[in-house]
Amino acid sequence: MIQHPAFVAEPWAVRERGLDLGLLAQTESVFALSNGHIGLRGNLDEGEPYGQPGTYLNSVYELRPLPYAEAGYGYPESGQTVVNVTNGKLIRLLVDDEPFDVRYGTLHEHERALDLRAGTLTRRARWSSPTGGEVLITSTRLVSFTHRAVAAILYEVEPVGSPRRVVVQSELVANETVEYTSGDPRAAAVLESPLVLEENVPATDGVAIMVHSTRVSRLRVAAAMVHQIDGPERTRVEAQGGGDVSRVTVATRLEPGQRLRLVKFFSYGWSAKRSRPAMHDQVVAALAAARLAGWDGLCADQRRFLDEFWAGADVEVEGDAEVQQAVRFGLFHLLQASARLEDRPIPGKGLTGSGYDGHAFWDTEIFVLPVLTYTYPRAAVDALSWRKSILPMAEARAAQLGLGGAAFPWRTINGEECSSYWPAGTAAFHINADIAHAVTRYVDATQDTRFERDTGLPLLVATARLWCALGHHDARGRFRIDGVTGPDEYSAVSDNNVYTNLMAGHNLIEAADAVLRHPDRARHLGVTLEESAAWRDAATAMFVPYDERLGVHPQSEGFTSHAVWDFAATRPDQYPLLLHFPYFDLYRKQVVKQADLVLALQLRGEAFTPEQKARDFAYYEALTVRDSSLSACTQAVIAAEVGQTELAYRYLGEAALMDLEDLEKNTLDGVHLASLAGAWIALVAGFGGMRAGQGRMCFAPALPSGITRMAFRLRYHGRLLHADVTPGSTAYRLLEGEPLMLTHHGKEFRLAAHPVTRPNPRSPLPEVPVRQPPGREPAPRRPS
Amino acid sequence: MIQHPAFVAEPWAVRERGLDLGLLAQTESVFALSNGHIGLRGNLDEGEPYGQPGTYLNSVYELRPLPYAEAGYGYPESGQTVVNVTNGKLIRLLVDDEPFDVRYGTLHEHERALDLRAGTLTRRARWSSPTGGEVLITSTRLVSFTHRAVAAILYEVEPVGSPRRVVVQSELVANETVEYTSGDPRAAAVLESPLVLEENVPATDGVAIMVHSTRVSRLRVAAAMVHQIDGPERTRVEAQGGGDVSRVTVATRLEPGQRLRLVKFFSYGWSAKRSRPAMHDQVVAALAAARLAGWDGLCADQRRFLDEFWAGADVEVEGDAEVQQAVRFGLFHLLQASARLEDRPIPGKGLTGSGYDGHAFWDTEIFVLPVLTYTYPRAAVDALSWRKSILPMAEARAAQLGLGGAAFPWRTINGEECSSYWPAGTAAFHINADIAHAVTRYVDATQDTRFERDTGLPLLVATARLWCALGHHDARGRFRIDGVTGPDEYSAVSDNNVYTNLMAGHNLIEAADAVLRHPDRARHLGVTLEESAAWRDAATAMFVPYDERLGVHPQSEGFTSHAVWDFAATRPDQYPLLLHFPYFDLYRKQVVKQADLVLALQLRGEAFTPEQKARDFAYYEALTVRDSSLSACTQAVIAAEVGQTELAYRYLGEAALMDLEDLEKNTLDGVHLASLAGAWIALVAGFGGMRAGQGRMCFAPALPSGITRMAFRLRYHGRLLHADVTPGSTAYRLLEGEPLMLTHHGKEFRLAAHPVTRPNPRSPLPEVPVRQPPGREPAPRRPS
Q1: Whether residue A512 is found in the same domain as residue A586
Q2: Residue B688 lies in a domain
Q3: Where is this region: Disordered (chains A, B) (predicted)?
């Protein structure tokens, strides 16, 4: 776990003072820069030491065969793994005769900071070589939000005390050795030397270019770099290139007070179709635009871009500096993962590490897109357009499985299913309703009719068709969906998972409604009146099991009859359970990895009475071990809704600090985007009580004791709203747009030019005592 | 399919006239010889052409890693695969300058016959080489039942018409190329060159010896051969050995009327512990004993052994010559698979092929041992002693899974689980009750108290403990067993599988009863009064779900609510379904691969009323596709019980002719021992209505129209019984032992020295109309 004060809790930055090599891999993920197209892990400029070197381009992957000791029909044959592409962030330094390496010599001072408003990673290091030569090194790195293909580094070195010979080597390197492996099935497969060289043009004329292809997936990757060098008169520059390396060497001698300043612009491009010369030209052109903007121009654009983002997305938190930092850190990474997607997926870890092989999951639609929909909606369009682009593959997969409509992959980069364990992959059909849910939420929030017609409708229709093929009416007329896996990965292949059935029902209704709004386009998709009527019928008849004896909803039919997991006999070191117990045992018992029924309480709240919510929440609290990062924020939201505000606050802390405190000990593989989104969800949907849908935006604010004030901004129906919550009341302001109706704790009001302030009532719900499995209680929040 | 008249339906032999190379692999399995220790596929003497070369020693296997694209806790890391050991049956022939190869020249005559009373495979071939030289070759091969380590071949060649130069090469060859592979997951993994040479002593002094070890599993295998050669005076014999080959070459010139006669004795031994010199000596010693007996002695011993077997096991069938042949063929292969086990397992395919990697499954306990228990009980002791010998591994596996008692492997050679797909492996816990069932049946049949105390009790106790750990009492006090897989492999990981629960309940009761009979030994196993009382409690409270609406038992809880498989839309070429549909789809629908609930009707008949049996049988008939060979015989038994005698007769045909007609098209991988046992089961338990247990032996004979008379023998309580069934009546005789009480159609009678004849009543049950899935009806029997 990253111990404070490794990171200082500043409101607009994540700052590390000193350098703990044991935390290097984690900090590389935390300090990763990305714009959704390019991702650079926060590796040290000089390349070594590293936790895991990482340079990623969205959707550049290699294929690998998926082995099965016993094969089965419909098992995916090959998996996709994100590839560590050409590293352009490498800048080595020689001081006199000693390479700058923090493992040698003396590191007098080291500080790194991720600036959430500037969009830069800065570093300052004061170091003496083993022979005593002291230098001050500063660098500022950015991945441009405004120039999609471009990253840049300002690297400066100056001697301290006495003159120094200094050599700086700026490089492009492909096929770096990736040493990190793990027995943990969640860790990424490691691919050795995935890139085949096609072209290496040294920087003799200024620009260095390298073009490679992946061996099996045949994707072409181009990288280029160019430098602006500012040093004493006798500074000498050389360029070399060969094999998988291209190098610009700058040698000089610096007097105290003198400084070598190097700006490195580097650019990337990739394509499955474009030729080597085309890719070559493309990255050179990107560099030309970057040079035209210049370092200062790139920085100014970056800040302007972020100012605009924060104006519509910021959440202010008073009373808890760590949560304040964490929610902004989370929003920043969400933006980084999605700003320049352009019809590519948002992987579970963004472009911050190779965890989960770089795959995208349902996390995107259920945790990430809800935040982006209200804060940076154009990213939601991009992510859902990617889903639309892989619809043909999802339809082919459904056909392979003997189903109609589309069966979206459980995990993928290119759109093909690469989950090799079907009970937790293929069977998790809820991903299709999750995609439909994200479509519906986006359309509700933005009233973007063109998107609904062109992108939303095909997705809604294809997923509705899947549910019709997947379910059937039983003898009592109930529509059943048997043998599927819900969100909780400690159960699988069950009948009538409540989350799945409710989400599917919503999917069917929303598809039928969308068909009514776009009859021509629906006809084009072959939807008949009979078909959409069948969707409504199935939704109306959807079976939602209920345990009358216990007065709670079973997660799936029969769940509440199963033995309760023996929590008392489970040692703390046996979590996460999946690494210490067989699936067989987990699946057959009442033990919940992550919110499942409780997620249904959040996303399909209208299907439950307040009393049912309170009882259900209490029941599942006692069973939920949170071995997944996709749980705490949901538990926070429902805890808040049922009046367990202090418990919600604990869960907020867990969701928000997942990566800054490395709570799951795997931040080294990349940040947990869904959990980072969860900080916003826990604050806004939890303590703000925000719910939206059917054209209505509702709030029910109530703060926990540790938060004295919370203010958030969000976009809805073209308006920019501001809510300022204090313990006693909430003030609503309309920052942009026309007046609209809102709901505060169940009562509608009109918000126009003048702010509206409403008192926050106390929770009307009696507190149902809740407990968690022993040892799995969320940690108390002690705001610093 | 092997078309008749490839095999001639003789009562005591399986004879092939002519040679169809397309059927070579299948006939190699059908003509395989074995004694349970050594197995020789029916490969042609000259080695080529072959379907699959095969020489096996029981429990000689190689290890191979089991790959997982996504690993999981408790997944087996390595698999075991039966190894093709040193081939000692190879005898090549050169006629003038042409090698005898049936693919060249002219085969005037070719006949092979498996003699079920002599225990030999004979062959007669009259062949002209491409240059016209004609010879008559005859060979007789045996694997000795009385000399466990020994096999022998009498090989004779004589010229037809004119003199011939003849060279015979008799060999030992290790690491033969095994070319057969298949995409079918059921086919065996192929291991290349699994044997590492340790010693090769040529036959210079008469005996040739080869010693090898397997590479990873480190098992040492020794083989030896010696010859008796009888030819014209100028016959010359040479011996060579080197690498993986040892060769004795016999050259002679034969005049018409002269004959070269060669008797080859060869022997095998293997050990995980014994040294190379010890193994060397062991196989030489076995040869010495064989030479002492001589060829005629071995043949006489073989016949005596079989005469004794048939005296206690034979089933006579009149009116259906194919079934007559098939039931004897089945009994013969059962004996071959088990006669000389000596604490080794009976694999699913015996030692007749490498199918299923040579693994043993529950088939042994539920299909094979019931037949052996009543016909050759000492083999049942051996097979169950093997289970006892692997009990420590099964206990370790249970502990690994977080359970008590023993969890026997779903598939194994050495006792370690090597099923890599847990929903159809680990989760199929019924294997433990199946083993207990075989123990109980054997003890009931033999009253073998010593076996019960030393072998049965530890098995019953360990399996009872497993069930107690695996189940739990629910709020209504019912004992539930959730999340397990029953016999039907088209369902998995369900709650309260009726077969499993009933078998587990029986296991618990039988364990508690056995503890009462052997209190001292039980105390030694740590069984307390409280523990055995808990077993009885669990058994009494065992939950058996019942669908009141349909009036049938669901195979597992909830099964009857699932969608019925769309049989109408399933094409004939889409069977077996598992090769054309995902497990996901099969598991969630009402479609049954093989008898599951219907097997419970047979094995736990006392738990059902006759009316329930009829209704349940009819319900599952409509859902059962018989994509497994472990189904037809069970359906035959229950069809007969519920009065569907003609349907039972069809199922008898399917079970009995599985290999002789290659009904599942995989006899090439080895015979289906369980299905061969099924012929006996369908006849004796089906048309004989035989049920035994709790010290009582009951019959309820009723013949189908195609069988005019059936007589069977079986052993019970030290008696040898004979039942002679005609359409109208049944005559019982006591061939050995003291008088005893029997039951005929529900009425007790005493059988002493005098035969007792009783009329066969008509079935009292109304015929419930039954149908099978379209296209999956069993073929009508048309006895030839």
Answers
A1: no
A2: no
A3: 754-784
What ipTM was estimated for this complex?
Answer: 0.91
CB contact under 8 A, B584 and A483: yes
Rounded Cα distance between A691 and A700, Å, is 9
pLDDT digits (tens, 9 = 90+) for A244-254: 999 999 999 99
Residue of B nearest to A570 (CA): B402
* Predicted local distance difference test score (pLDDT) of residue B70: 87
Phi-psi map region of B59: left, alpha, beta (phi>0 left; psi -120 to 50 alpha)? left
Distance CA A285, CA A201 (A): 15
Distances (CA, A) of B151 to B116, B189, B422, B624: 17, 27, 39, 43
A471 to chain B nearest CA, in Å? Answer: 8
Mean pLDDT per block of 10 residues along chain B (784 residues) reads 65 96 96 98 97 97 90 92 97 95 97 98 97 95 98 98 96 84 44 91 93 96 98 95 96 96 98 96 97 98 98 98 98 98 96 96 97 98 98 98 97 96 96 98 98 98 98 96 98 97 98 98 97 98 98 98 97 96 97 98 97 96 96 97 96 96 93 97 98 96 96 97 97 98 98 97 76 95 75
Indicate whether A620 and A524 sit together in one domain: no
Q: Which residues 398-417 of B are in CB contact (within 8 Å) with A?
A: 401-402
| A612/A465 same-domain check | no
Dig out the tokens for B172 from the structure. Answer: 């030992």
Q: DSSP string of B656-683?
A: HHTTTTTTTS-GGG---HHHHHHHHHII
Residue count (chain A): 784
Give chain B's largest Cα–Cα span. Answer: 90
Query: How would you label A737-758 residue by residue, b for 16+ Cβ within 10 Å and e otherwise?
Result: eeebebbbbeeeeebeeeeeeb
For the segment A141-177, what is each residue's pLDDT rounded down to a tens digit? 999 999 999 999 999 999 999 999 999 999 999 999 8
What is the distance in angstroms between the CA of the first residue and the CA of the last residue of chain A?
Answer: 18
Q: Which residues of A are catalytic?
A: 489
In a domain? residue B302: no
Residue from A587, A742, A776 nearest B427 by CA: A587
A 490-529: CB under 8 A from B: 492-493, 495
The verdict on residue B52 lying in a domain is yes
Contact A247, A171 (CB under 8 A): yes
Of A498, A522, A544, which residue sits at a domain end? A544
Q: Is A483 on the interface with B (CB under 8 A)?
A: yes
Print the domain residue range for B260. Answer: 31-66+76-292
Domain count, chain B: 2
Q: Residue B769 has what pLDDT?
A: 79
The DSSP string of A515-575 is HHH-HHHHHHTT--HHHHHHHHHHHHTB----BTTTTB--SSTTGGGSEEP-GGG--GGG-
Write down which residue in B292, B312, B344 finishes a domain.
B292
Across the A/B interface, how many CB contacts are shorter than 8 Å? 142
CA–CA separation, B741 vs B43, rounded Å? 48
Contact A207, A284 (CB under 8 A): yes
Whether B397 and B260 map to the same domain: the answer is no
Question: Could you give the angle at the alpha carbon of A582 between the alpha carbons of B439 and A597, nearest 5°?
Answer: 120
Mean pLDDT of chain A: 95
B657 min Cα distance to partner chain A (Å): 28
Helices A457-470 and A430-446 cross at an angle (nearest 10°) of 150
Tokens of A575: 């979590």
State how far the Cα of B511 lies from the Cα of B494, in Å rounded to an integer: 25
Q: Tokens 């046992």 identify what position?
A: B677
Task: List % helix, strand, coil for chain A (3-state, nearest 5).
Answer: 35, 25, 40
Q: Is the dihedral of CA B667, B671, B674, B676 positive or negative?
A: positive
A72 and B CB contact within 8 Å? yes
pLDDT-derived band at A70, boundaries 50, 70, 90:
confident
